[in-house]
Amino acid sequence: MPQDPHPRTASRRHYLMCPPTYFTVSYSINPWMHPDRPTDTDVAVAQWERLRDLFLDLGHRVDLIEPIPGLPDMVYAANGATVLDDKVVVANFRHAERAGESAAYKEWFQNHGDYDVVPAAHINEGEGDYLVSGTRILAGTGFRSDPAAHQEAEDVLGAPVVGLTLVDPRYYHLDTALSILTEDLIAYLPEAFAPASREVLAQLYPDAVIADPDDAAVFGLNAVSDGRHVVLPKAADRLAAKLAERGFEPVGVDLSELLKGGGSAKCCTLELRHADPTGAAR
Ligand code: ARG
């Protein structure tokens, strides 16, 4: 494989995370969740802390939202909202088990800075299904977010939305099947998308990194990129090698406990994008 000639540059990010203090799997709303299998909250906390420390070591800012007892999925902070230029669309969860999280995220944004906070009328699960790719937003549907939510996101966030249909229940959120690497480069698993969506992706991203099914199955695409470092589950070794060939620095993490809830690195990480780019350091 030829080396990518472009040097990769990291930019400082601002993330919101939620400690898994009350993490467990007590219900099942995706095929990864088995309430009959034991979970270890202490292990989840230790793995999550390593992820947070890694972001800090990479120079990023991490803010925290207080976890709430009885909302075990709150650790998957990516689902709480979508933020672009200080505009926030708050999630409106599909399942009753997570509905209580919306108010918590709304309140956090209202109390932390100059965000323009809009509660969503339509079902959407934040950055689980909305991924900002340069000037556009890639928006998943099929399992969680409602297609009607896509127009709402476009109106509120002011960026064109490209709708993509997911077809494999294991990849129920867009961020389980596709990762944003840079403004114009993505990695994805074609098999997770309906044929028409595959065509759209192939056309928009002819240079995309194509993931192997085995890497997707360990949540390798649930990755967080700062433009240079790509934080992803360490079991996704083929994907890590492909990223290295393209000039990225893959950083493997172990989030095996949080995978029992159907999430990994990206699910735990909500990016706060500010109108003033220097705002990332606020
Ligand atoms: N148990 C959670 C759910 O099914 C996991 C969410 C994972 N988050 C993500 N961004 N994909 O809703």
UniProtKB/TrEMBL annotation:
Q: Does the keyword Hydrolase apply?
A: yes
Know the name of this protein? N-Dimethylarginine dimethylaminohydrolase
PANTHER family reported for this sequence: ARGININE DEIMINASE (PTHR47271:SF2)
Species for this entry? Micromonospora siamensis
Listed A to Z, the keywords are: Hydrolase
Please name the GO terms of the biological process aspect recorded for this protein, alphabetically.
L-arginine deiminase pathway
Q: Name one GO molecular function term.
A: arginine deiminase activity
Cited NCBIfam families = DiMArgaseDdahMtb (NF045659)
